[in-house]
Amino acid sequence: MSVGIVLARLALLYYGYNIITLAATAEARSTPVRVLFVLLLSSLLAGCITSSPQKALYKAEYPHRQDIRQQNVYQFKTTPIKASGERYWGAGELTQLFRVNDKDASTVQLRFNYPAKSLEAVSLDAANRTLSKETFMLLDESAPKPSSPETNYFYLTKDGQLVHKSRNCTPDMSVGCQWWNHRLFITRNGDMAVHYENGSAVLLFLVFPGYGSHDYLEIFSKVSPVANVTS
């Protein structure tokens, strides 16, 4: 659920509350009237919004994913086969997701050191010259999230996926949370699939529930990893 939708529902709740207050006058103080207004507001405020434009593609690829640990080195094109059409971190540009942005980047090489639990991402130009490097920690699924926001990391799942999750909850007059999740997996063809989910859940005034979720999928084509990368 977007912030705009949440604000709109808050506004609706505010005006609905005023309506209930006005209705609770000497002329309309009966319990049935108040119950009717509460039910009406509940139906307007409570709701669920979901969007998944690439759902069919995700359902076709995800069950046939490969364990990323089958290789130590991968290399992928920086732009997806087909863009999701949305704007979010890493959308349409693999270098952004791995923090190795460069306008001249043609591919991204991923170098895994599984015993050391680390990943080095390298952006390369068309001549396979190194443009930018970034190192990530590979955490077990049960490991706590790093305390420093400057730490680069991915969770490496037991079935060989890379996961990065962010969450923000703000208790106030209402209880609400937002989350931003990236899930990376290797497709049956050896390409890199990036599944992104953004969602929010809110309980307005601890009474009216709302939920929204949007997820997208982009696939980045594999290329043969280059062994002799020039600096």
Description of the molecule:
This protein has 231 residues and is of the alpha+beta class. The chain folds into two domains: 1-45; 49-220, no CATH class. Helices cover 20% and strands 36% of the residues. The protein has four helices and ten strands, in the order ααβαβαββββββββ. It has helices at 3-23, 31-45, 55-61, 94-97, and strands spanning 47-51, 73-77, 107-113, 118-124, 130-139, 153-156, 162-169, 175-186, 192-204, 208-220. It has a ten-stranded mixed sheet with strand order 1-10-9-8-7-6-5-4-3-2. β9 (192-204) and β10 (208-220) form a beta hairpin. α1 packs antiparallel against α2 (31-45). The longest helix is centred in the first third of the chain and has 21 residues, at 3-23. The protein starts with a helix and ends in an 11-residue tail after the last strand. Residues 1-29 and 35-46 have low confidence and may be disordered.
Number of DSSP strand runs: 10
For the biggest β-sheet, the strand order reads 1-10-9-8-7-6-5-4-3-2
Radius of gyration over all CA atoms, rounded: 23 Å
Count of domains = 2
Report on the biggest sheet: 10 strands, mixed
Topology:
Layout (H helix, E strand, L loop, with lengths): L2 H21 L7 H15 L1 E5 L3 H7 L11 E5 L16 H4 L9 E7 L4 E7 L5 E10 L13 E4 L5 E8 L5 E12 L5 E13 L3 E13 L11
Parallel strand pairs: 1-10, 5-6
Antiparallel strand pairs: 2-3, 3-4, 4-5, 6-7, 7-8, 8-9, 9-10
Helix pairs in contact: 1-2
